[in-house]
Automatic annotation (TrEMBL):
<dbReference type="GO" id="GO:0003677">
    <property type="term" value="F:DNA binding"/>
</dbReference>
<dbReference type="InterPro" id="IPR036279">
    <property type="entry name" value="5-3_exonuclease_C_sf"/>
</dbReference>
<dbReference type="Pfam" id="PF02739">
    <property type="entry name" value="5_3_exonuc_N"/>
</dbReference>
<dbReference type="GO" id="GO:0006302">
    <property type="term" value="P:double-strand break repair"/>
</dbReference>
<keyword id="KW-0540">Nuclease</keyword>
<dbReference type="InterPro" id="IPR020045">
    <property type="entry name" value="DNA_polI_H3TH"/>
</dbReference>
<keyword id="KW-0808">Transferase</keyword>
<dbReference type="InterPro" id="IPR002421">
    <property type="entry name" value="5-3_exonuclease"/>
</dbReference>
<keyword id="KW-0234">DNA repair</keyword>
<dbReference type="GO" id="GO:0003887">
    <property type="term" value="F:DNA-directed DNA polymerase activity"/>
</dbReference>
<dbReference type="InterPro" id="IPR002298">
    <property type="entry name" value="DNA_polymerase_A"/>
</dbReference>
<dbReference type="InterPro" id="IPR043502">
    <property type="entry name" value="DNA/RNA_pol_sf"/>
</dbReference>
<dbReference type="Pfam" id="PF00476">
    <property type="entry name" value="DNA_pol_A"/>
</dbReference>
<dbReference type="Pfam" id="PF01612">
    <property type="entry name" value="DNA_pol_A_exo1"/>
</dbReference>
<keyword id="KW-0235">DNA replication</keyword>
<keyword id="KW-0239">DNA-directed DNA polymerase</keyword>
<keyword id="KW-0548">Nucleotidyltransferase</keyword>
DNA sequence: ACGGCCACTTA
DNA sequence: GTAAGTGGCCGTC
């Protein structure tokens, strides 16, 4: 090429940076918080991340050291989705979903951004960005220059070599040979071989079935490369592996072609022309101003000498973005600047004048810029230093804290240490009960030196942790609250980062600290299992060496503080402060106390039941073996399927997702109805087996040896809808349906001299629906105290409520439930055992009788597609980020979930309101009733015998009026409450 | 030892 | 058709 001759070649002094633009966009979009431009709501989160990274790289190179600045620089993009790889293998990247709607306009914007910073922007028809990067990297390296690829894409790792490095700026991670080895189990030169075997589900590279990265690395390390392996495949010992390697040899060869990057693309832009030129300040500032990135605008202006005020924001079209659609919402948001800066502590400088979104983003940007360095933390070993940390917390007015203990079960956990952080990057760990982890032989386990005596530490900490003017910030505070309360400390006031995240982002992903840290800080905290191990070899935290414990524990406090600074301002920007303050935060001590109280179970009774169940199972077992003509494992659906549909030749078996015979209760009951004897015995056996293993056998193991009671753990941030969940043990699914099951429930008993009171809302979800969808007939029926299912049947079929056929009522009941679940003809047909057509007719009739319900459903669907979330009557949000998927089945699923969420979630909100008020109302009435359990529409209390009559009305009153005064529900709520010696009779 | 699948339990 | 959690089996690590 003639141009190449006129430009000097690269030299050993040159440094070429190649930014993988396409993957950066996706990564930035998902990793960074969503951010929209102020005036029109144009999504610019990924653009912001990109500009910050680009500017940093241009300024500093890869390290802040001198001499590492790039001499050559380019951002490489994919041109279109079809490349030469699709000719080799049409399925390549075929299962890639379409990019999210709000990401599309950012593709063009990032190209604009690149040009605004005067950086070459390269893409080429028929080739992926990866191929261009491979080609440029090879050319530059051959000319002796240093090359750095900026990407997190593992597919580029094959390029790494002496001259070619790779860095993931989003995760602040440098990839060299050791990192490649860690990821693929081989060096960069063998990455292709491993990938061709392991395949890649994301890119739809097939590989060889049954071979993952681990096995692939093993094989390549043994045989050298793919072809040698395939040539010697016969010698592989493992049957399945050998067969697959032989059968799928050609598939592996195709895979190898797919993953091999093309290093000889006839590039249209020569590598030597990718030189760095000075940033044109006015041009860059114009772009940044147009985007509304105030922090970066200022920084770039300072560095380039451009006058911010003198530059007009750049004007350009953004394809795929409709401005008018978003104006209304944005205008509303702008008004809500209220106290967002104060919300997160130090509201410094200009923040007070910014809108909440901008505060939140500016905060995130600043915090991300401070590196998390787990070697920089302090181990506090003296009372004096601890006092200084507490003073610092009091001075600041807030402190992040975290406890380290001997157990994940807060009810059995002993305090081992505690960490504090008052500003990002600064944190300490206070070891209190670490013991010698090594010398078991010499009776190790002695308390290690240089630890503050527990009692002295608590004396220093207590005033600060209980100080009303110091906000304590924790991740999943309920745990720490339970631990600290046993040491006589009542933490207040507090914030919980897990609940903050749940409040603003429910449905977008988990709310655990590690996940939040990666999502918001781009930082992966030290995993617990790297400190304590896992499984059988797991050690308790008191055996962890103190320096290691400091790195882990102080990092948790550091990360928690950062998350708080990022998430707290979002309460204002997202209008979620009331939800957090009335439905989330106050639940922490309420649930903690319920967990602490626990509930009594009758151990003897459960043990007897286990015996009874075992006997019943044994009887059924022999009958089953007799009928089957052989013994087999009844608990194995696979073996059972072979007996029923293979050996016995019964036809009509359904398939499960994995293609195996379905042996679900539904299938077995259908077979029983056809006159087969075996299936119903299997169903009966399975029920007994479940009752025995999950309940009568397992529950006694949860009895706490100190309290003699069972303490469940409630998760506040586990569901998308706002419901709680219960685990270890799950006390929200204790049997009630069958006689045998109710025996389990009878084992939940009141303390001597007490009764259990169960108070449950009647039809709360249908009432909520009647209110939200504003259905006159339903509301009237609830006001008149009618049988709602009978009334539904009467409306639909015109039959009088008096003397109604129970089967007709049953059908109406199924439809009512179906409505709550986002009805489909398929589901209703399944439930009622009728045809899809009949079910469709029922639904049609229902919608004709209750047109408001149909309107409600359509409105919800529109909302979720437009906003990505739906809301409950109290403003809780449930997000469905994938609802706009093209897959019709998935789409319909998310739509049903979105229809259900406001109904289920509003009911959950009402329960939460009742729970938050309950304790005070009881104590005001001088009642000693204790709230023990919550089961979605039911609360269980333990009440002194003498107070039962006085307590019931109070409980009912609180529950029935739980919406007051925030909201006037247009249907009455009805609560039924009863007292008895055990849960079954109270229910 | 761990994870996916299937089955069962609840509201 | 919605929302959850647990236990046994069974294949992979």
């Amino acid at each position: 090429m003639s141009t190449q001759d006129s430009i000097p070649a690269l030299t050993a002094d040159d440094h070429l940076i190649l930014v993988d633009g396409s993957t950066f966009i996706f990564r930035a979009y998902h990793a960074l918080p969503p951010l929209t431009r102020k005036p029109d709501g144009l999504p610019v989160g990924a653009v912001s991340g990109f500009c910050n990274m680009l500017w940093k790289l241009l300024q500093e190179g890869l390290t802040p050291e001198e001499g590492d600045e790039p001499t050559h620089f380019a951002v490489i993009f994919d041109h279109s989705s079809k490349t030469f790889r699709n000719t080799i293998y049409p399925e390549y990247k075929a299962n890639r979903p379409d990019p999210p709607e709000d990401l599309v306009p950012q593709f063009g914007l990032i190209r604009e951004a690149t040009r605004a910073f005067s950086v070459p922007c390269v893409e080429q028809e028929g080739f992926e960005a990866d191929d261009l990067i491979a080609t440029y990297a090879r050319q530059a390296a051959e000319q002796g220059a240093k090359v750095t690829i900026v990407s997190g894409d593992k597919d580029l790792m094959q390029l790494i070599g002496p001259k070619v490095g790779m860095i993931d700026t989003m995760k602040n991670k440098v990839f060299g040979e050791p990192e490649v080895f860690e990821k693929f189990g081989v060096g960069p030169d063998k990455v292709i071989e491993v990938q061709s075997l392991a395949g890649d589900s994301v890119d739809n590279v097939p590989g060889v079935p049954g071979i993952g990265l681990k096995t692939a690395a093993l094989l390549i390390n043994e045989f050298g490369d793919l072809e040698s392996l395939l040539a010697q495949a016969e010698t592989i010992k493992q049957n399945k592996r050998r067969e697959n390697l032989i059968e799928f040899a050609d598939q592996a060869r195709v895979s190898r072609e797919l993953v091999t990057l093309k290093q000889d693309v006839p590039v249209e832009v020569p590598v030597a022309s990718l030189t760095v030129t000075d940033v044109d300040g006015a041009k860059a500032v114009g772009f940044l101003k147009a985007m509304g990135f105030s922090t970066l605008t200022k920084r770039v202006a300072e560095e380039t000498g451009a006058e911010v005020d003198a530059v007009e924001p750049a004007d350009f079209q953004v394809p795929g973005w409709d401005v008018p659609d978003h104006k209304g919402r944005m205008a509303e948001r702008t008004e809500a600047a209220s106290g967002a800066a104060a919300a997160a502590g130090e509201g410094a400088g200009t923040e007070g004048m910014m809108v909440p979104q901008t505060v939140a983003e500016a905060r995130a940007e600043t915090i991300r810029a401070i590196a998390v360095d787990s070697s920089a933390y302090e181990t506090v070993t003296s009372v004096e230093r601890l006092q200084e940390w507490c003073d610092a917390a009091i001075e600041k007015g807030y402190v992040a804290f975290d406890t380290e203990t001997t157990s994940l079960d807060a009810m059995q956990a002993d305090l081992v240490g505690l960490s504090l952080s008052t500003e990002p990057g600064q944190a300490c760990y206070v070891p209190l009960a670490h013991v010698d982890g090594e010398g078991d032989l010499l009776g190790g386990g002695g308390l290690l030196p240089d630890q503050i005596p527990l009692k002295d530490a608590m004396e220093v900490l207590k005033p600060m942790l209980e100080d009303r003017s110091v906000l304590k910030i924790a991740q999943n505070l309920k745990y720490d609250w339970l631990v600290m309360t046993r040491y006589g400390i009542d933490i207040a006031p507090y914030d919980d980062t897990m609940l903050l995240s749940y409040t603003v982002d429910a449905g977008k992903g988990g709310n655990g600290m590690d996940e939040l840290s990666e999502r918001w800080l781009g930082h992966k905290p030290i995993p617990f299992k790297e400190v304590c191990g896992s499984g059988k070899s797991m050690i308790t935290f008191d055996k962890v060496a103190i320096d290691r414990a400091t790195a882990y524990a102080a990092e948790d406090a550091d990360v928690t503080l950062r998350l708080w600074q990022i998430l707290k301002p979002r309460l204002a920007s997202d209008h979620m402060a009331t939800v957090y303050e009335t439905l989330e935060r106050p639940m922490v001590p309420v649930l903690a106390r319920m967990e602490k109280r626990g509930i009594s179970v009758d151990r003897q009774m459960l043990s007897r039941l286990s015996g009874d169940f075992a006997q019943g199972m044994a009887g059924l077992e022999s009958e089953i073996y007799e009928l089957a003509g052989e013994t087999f494992n009844i608990g194995s659906p696979k073996q059972l399927g072979e007996i029923l549909f293979g050996k016995m030749g019964i036809p009509g078996g359904k398939k499960t997702k994995t293609g195996a015979w379905s042996t679900s209760a539904q299938v077995l009951e259908d077979l029983a109805a056809e006159g087969h004897e075996l299936p119903s015995k299997i169903v009966a056996w399975r029920q007994l087996s479940k009752l025995k293993s999950t309940y009568s056998d397992a529950l006694p193991g949860y009895i706490n040896p100190e309290t003699g009671r069972v303490h469940t753990s409630y998760a506040l941030a586990a569901t998308t809808t706002g419901r709680l969940s219960s685990s270890e043990p799950n006390l929200q699914n204790i049997p009630v349906r069958t006689e045998a099951g109710r025996k389990i429930r009878q084992a939940f008993i009141a303390e001597k001299g007490h009764k259990l009171v169960s108070a449950d809302y009647s039809q709360i979800e249908l009432r909520v629906l009647a209110h939200m969808a504003d259905i006159p007939q339903l509301k009237k029926a609830f006001e008149d105290g009618l049988d709602i299912h009978a009334m539904t049947a009467s409306e639909m079929f015109g039959t009088p409520i008096e003397g109604m056929d129970p089967m007709v009522r049953r059908q109406a009941k199924a439809i009512n439930f179906g409505i709550i679940y986002g009805i489909s003809a398929f589901g209703l047909a399944n439930q009622l055992g009728i045809s899809r057509g009949e079910a469709g007719d029922y639904i049609k009739t229902y919608f004709e009788r209750f047109p408001g319900i149909k309107d409600y459903m359509e409105t919800i669907k529109k909302q979720v597609h437009a906003d990505g979330f739906v809301t409950t009557i109290f403003g809780r949000k449930a997000h469905y980020p994938e609802v706009n998927t093209k897959n019709p089945n998935h789409r319909a699923f998310y739509e049903r979930a979105a229809i259900n969420a406001p109904i289920q979630g509003s009911a959950a909100d009402i329960l939460r309101r009742a729970m938050v008020r309950m304790e005070e109302r009881l104590s005001d009435a001088k009642l000693d009733a204790q709230m023990l359990l919550q089961v979605h529409d039911e609360l269980i209390f333990e009440v002194p015998d003498a107070q039962v009559d006085a307590t019931l009305p109070v409980i009912r009153d609180v529950m029935e009026n739980a919406c007051d005064p925030a909201l006037k529900l247009t249907v009455p709520l009805q609560v039924d409450a009863r007292a008895a010696g055990n849960w079954d009779e109270a229910h």
